[in-house]
Here is the input.
Amino acid sequence: MGMRLDIKDVSCGYGSKNVVNNISLNVSSGEILCLLGPNGVGKTTFFKTILGFLKLQGGKIMIDEEDIRTWSRKQLARVIGYVPQAHAPPFPFTVFEVVLMGRTAHLSMFASPAKEDRDITEEVIEMLKISHLKDRIYTEISGGERQMVLIARALAQQPKILIMDEPTSNLDFGNQIRVLEQINKLSKRGLGVIMTSHFPNHAFLCSTKVLFMNKGSEFCVGNADEVVTEDMLKKAYGINVKIVSTVNSEGEKIKTCIPLIK
Amino acid sequence: MNINGAMTKKSIKAKTKSVIKSSEDTKIYYLLIAISFLPLIAVIISLVIGRYPISLPEFFNAISNKISGTSTMVNSIDTVLFNVRIPRIIAALLIGGALSVAGATYQGLFKNPMVSPDILGASAGAGFGAALGILLSFNTAGIQISAFLFGLGAVTITYLLSSAIGRGNSATLVLILTGMVVSTLFSSFISITKYVADPTDKLPAITFWLMGGLSSVGLKDLKTLLIPITLGIIPLFFLRWKLNILSFGEEEAKALGLDTSSLRIVIIFCSTLITAGTISVSGMIGWIGLIIPHMARMIVGPNFKVLLPTSLILGATFLLLVDDFARCAFAMEIPLGILTSLIGAPFFIFLLMKGRKGWV
Here is the structure.
């Protein structure tokens, strides 16, 4: 059940101001696209346009050759799941309730979740190994735990693509890596993932494709080795970095980037 | 009743700590059934107490006579019971329940537990409509219709203005701010009406109306209440799961598959129907729509699936008891709106102090 998201000459922005121009790329099932780039280049604008929060200013977004502009919210939500940055809603829902809300796209207009929806929610919670949080109050758990709950909610939606807004922001070092591991696992299960990040290392650890966006609507797409280079980082962020290789526990080559501080 | 509720909640919490989710759900439903008895008890109390005390045997006697039609004689018990007391009890139940449902709904829609049903200008608009009706010497029905239409009108103005001003992420905030502006505007209109009103008869009538109360509610008012309340509450009950999702904000609700803009219109329309409908009959009764949803949330949690019915039941019971107090406590009846504020304000502070982290 492969699926392919095609982005063709897409321009996006707010109102009459275009922030991003003519981006083309595609993401298929099992791929992880990592969006890198300095603040204000339009990473958020770009993924919010894919999610339909912002109006498409030009080009086409297709899923399996179908233009998604004509799709209803519900249709879109069954294919694309969204994991926002961890946040606190105004009411103290339990973790189970929050995850159950992911089922909304599969309910009819006036319905509430049924037994089947609860079962799917249980499964997802178990899969992400957060069963111990199930009855806890969402507003009272830690940032890392909330991020996992939001991932669970998006998975309960049973989408083909997951769009994640800085999934590692505000998390401690260990939780950052645990979230990245989870993303890798999800892509192996056949999910397409689009995520934004501020850390070039995350592109090395957790991506099959990188979209590096730069000021002035410049962008380049490729795998992490091609795109995340010392020159590129210097150009984008105005800092000097060194990219070095080392070997992970399985003996695979792995790159990491070290900023050089004067 | 409130204290009982809080205690039940505490013991329930302690017991369910280690139990799995489904059994906690069952407990909430048991709790809901238990809560359902509250209005029943309140109704029985309300039937017998009053300026004209009616004992329970007398009450059952009157009822059985009414049903069998054996008594053709008009006696005072019948008159008090069927023309005054029962309509008033039903009105209190309807208004209390409806305002609480509208309040809970708005709190979800605006992602803010501090919101009450008059946030978009329904109260101020209806107040002006009524004041204008009194000024122009309309009859009771005319005043009610005027209040109702101006209540709807004020919210429509708020909605149209806010959609002309802003879209996107801050839509909700713009809506609340516009609501405040429209409320203030209509409050000024009320002041103007009072200023030009005849100080010997019209001004006191307007002032009294604005205080809110059920002292003049009769059988025919129930119909006026029942139609907008039913039309408003039924859709909200069907949409109550979606209210959970809306409380996470515009973008997340969209990403979860909701058509937020049309849903918002439907919800605002239903809540406004309820608010304007109740105010047009009872005048301004504040605080109910703010505190009852809080109380309900403390007992059954924030899930609108159970929160909405709980708010309905608690709100109905609460307003009925407050209205009993209003008509029985002193030699002269106290306007209900004043009482709900007197009780509501300190009670809200109490809730804030007792409340657990996360719901403010």
Summary: Chain A touches chain B at residues 14, 48, 51-53, 72-74, 76-78, 80-82, 84, 88-94, 96-97, 101-102, 104-105, 107, 109-113, 134-135, 137, 139-140, 153, 157 (CB under 8 Å). Chain A has a mean pLDDT of 92.
